Amino acid sequence: MPPKKYGGSERIVYTLTEELIKRGHEVTLFASGDSQTSAKLVSVYPRSLREAKIKDMYDLNDLTLLHLGTPYTMEDQFDIVHDHIGVFSLPVAQKSKTPVLMTLHGPFTATNRRLYSTFRNPYLAAISRSQVKFAPPVATVAGVVYNGLAMDGYPYSSENDGYLLFVGRISMEKGTHHAIEVAQNLDLPLIIAAKLDLTDVAYFNEYVGPQLSDDRIRWIGEVDEVERNKLMSRALCLLHPITWREPFGLTMIEAMACGCPVIAFNKGSILEIVVDGKTGFIVEDLEGMIEAVSKVGSIDRSFCRRYALDNFNAGRMTDGYEDIYRRILENKK
Prior knowledge:
Elements: H1 8-22, E1 28-30, E2 40-42, H2 62-73, E3 81-83, H3 90-93, E4 100-103, H4 112-118, E5 123-126, H5 129-132, E6 141-144, E7 164-169, H6 176-186, E8 190-195, H7 201-208, E9 217-219, H8 225-234, E10 237-240, H9 250-257, E11 262-265, H10 270-273, E12 280-283, H11 286-294, H12 301-311, H13 314-332
Parallel strand pairs: 1-2, 3-4, 4-5, 5-6, 7-8, 7-10, 8-9, 10-11, 11-12
Helix pairs in contact: 1-13, 6-11, 9-12
C-alpha cells in the first residue's frame, strides 16, 4: 500500500485508511511489510507477493491464508473488522465475535452466491447498486458505498493529443480487442497502458499481439500512477469496452478527474458512473462505441473533472463507510 502500478482495490483501501486516520480513528492495516501507511501496520510478509514473484500468489497459498486469518486472531482489539479480501475470508469471518464489514470488490456469481448465503455473519458493503441486484436474498447488505479517491492533484487538460486510451488489464473481460477494433475502424492511434497476467497470455497472443504496431496500436505495458494520469489528461477519450458485469470501474473516475471523457459498454455499474452525453457516452455495442468517438468533442472536459471530484472523492466514500460502521455498532448494543 499504496500500489506502485496496477491495484484498484489496494488504492481504495489505502485511501480509506488515510482518510479515517485524518478523522481521528485508530486504524490497523493488514498489508505487506513494504507498505507506506499512517496506520499501525501488521504484516505476515516483508514484500508484496507480486513484487516478490510468488508463483501462486492468486491462490490460497500459505501466506495468503496467514494474511487473511491474522486479523481475526486479533479481533478483540477492534470495534470493527473491515475486510476487503472477500469470499476467501468468509469461513473465518463467520466465527468472528467482533462485527465484520466486508466490502465486495468483485461480482456475485452463481458459485459464490451459495457461500454468501451460508456464511452470513459479515455485513456486506456493495460498491454499486447494480452489484446488489445479484446478492442472495439472505445476505445482509448494509449499504452501497461508491469508490472514491483523493483526486484533487490529478492533472487536468482542456485539450487532447488525439489518441484513444485503454487502461488497466489486458483480458477478454476488459475487452481490449474491442478497443483495438474501434481504433482500427476510425484510423486513430490507441495507447494500451495495461498489465498482462499469465492467465491472459493466450488471449493476448490471439487477439492483441498480432494487432500491435509502433505507430497506431501501441502497448506500453503497465504504468505507474503519474504516467497513467498524464496519459488520461491528454487522451481524446478512455475506451472501456467491458464484456462482464463490472461492479465498479475505477479507471473511469480517474479518467474523468483528468478531464478525459469515457466511452463504455452498458454493463454492470456503468450507468452509475458515467453520465451519458455529459462525461462521455454509454453504448450498447462496438458500432455504438465507434459512433460515440466521432462526437466525443462535444463533451466538456472541465465538467468531467468537476463531476468526478464531486461524486467520487475520498471524503464522500469515507462518509459512507463511517455511517455503516455506526449503524453496525448500534445494532450490536
